[in-house]
Structures are given as structure tokens and as C-alpha cells.
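ok here's Helix-turn-helix domain-containing protein, seq below lol
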Amino acid sequence: MNGGENVARKKYPEAVETGQRIRLARIEKGLSMEQLGGKLSPPASKGAVSNWENGYNLPNNTRLKQLSKVLDVSTTYLLNGSYTLRDMHMMPEIKRNVLEKQLKKTIEKNNSIIDSNLSNAINNIEEDNLTVSQKIYLTNAIKYLKTGSRIEFPDGSTPIAYLAALLNTLLRYDSLINDSEKNTDEKKEYQEFYENDLLKEFTALVTELNKHYSK
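and the structure came out like this:
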């Protein structure tokens, strides 16, 4: 017996940072803890959400996947804080500015070689011979070319920061897919993204550009 004294609750180190990111994403989404819990299946109580956010419990894989969908962030971001394309709206402005400065220097050094072979490269794309990572890169690089380097995306990010997140997505994708021993929900999330979203978008963009450059 503890004589009526309160026993300090134990926080789990691996859950604290994940909880902080759940809270940030929830606030960004404009949801209360009750509202977030109600969108899960089965619904989670306000107390359960509070335990996640404060690091007393780590959501299981099923809950993480549900949270990812409801909060519109990747499980990669929730678990380790790495920013993928899906998480651009969560990137702090200071970090975004640092990435922009680094990438601007790289782009300025290589800008002179970008345009000369673009038309020929697009006309010779063979979809069946491309890896998934190449398709991810090309799809988003084409978006960048169509949008222009001075335009902000709807989530407020600039193309420079967008490309930085793209590179992180590619690295994470390769790490997961090339590890045959891993069979996680995060890996399934990337596979579903490839099968349901990327292939359709990539084919449509390549078709559009082929029409443009074949004139």
C-alpha cells in the first residue's frame, strides 16, 4: 500500500516524441482530443489520446496507421520525425529555411545543365524499365517543372523545401523496400501509395509531357 500517496506515472522515452508529433498534427488539423479519438475505429477515448500525446503509451501499429490517415501525415513522421512529401505542412519554418538555402546553392551550381536534354529525356521515358524510386522522383520533378520555382504550394511550402522532402521520401522508400526482412505497416503504406496513387499520376504526367514535346 502507498498510504494514499500518488504514484508517479511512468512515461516511455520512445513514446514521448511520437506523442508530441501526434499533438502537433492534431492541432494543425484543428481537432480536439475527443474529435481525434472519435475518428478512429474503434473510437479512442480522450484519455487514450492524452496518454499517447503525453508519452504514457505508444499507439500500436493499427492505431498509428489510423492516426496517419486522419491527421494526414506519414507514419514515418509520427514515429521518427522525418519529413516525407506528405508531411510538408508540418515542417517548422526555420528548418524549411535551412533546407531551402542548402538546396538553392546546389541548384545554382547545376542550373546550366538542366534544360539542354529535357525534351530528349522525356520523349525516351520507358515506364516499364524505371524503378519505383525513379518514378517517384520523376513524378514530383515534373510537378516542380510545371509549377515553377517561385510559386508556393497550397500547404505553404516552397518548391525547394518540397524537393528536400522528396529526397527524404526516396531514401526512406529504398530503405524499407530493399530490406526483405521488414514487413511493417509503414512499408505497406509506401506500397499502397505506389500502387494506388503514383502509377496513375506518373502515367498521366508523362503522357501530357509527351504530347507537349512531340509537337
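fwiw Residues 1-7, 149-154 have pLDDT under 50 and may be disordered. kinda neat tbh
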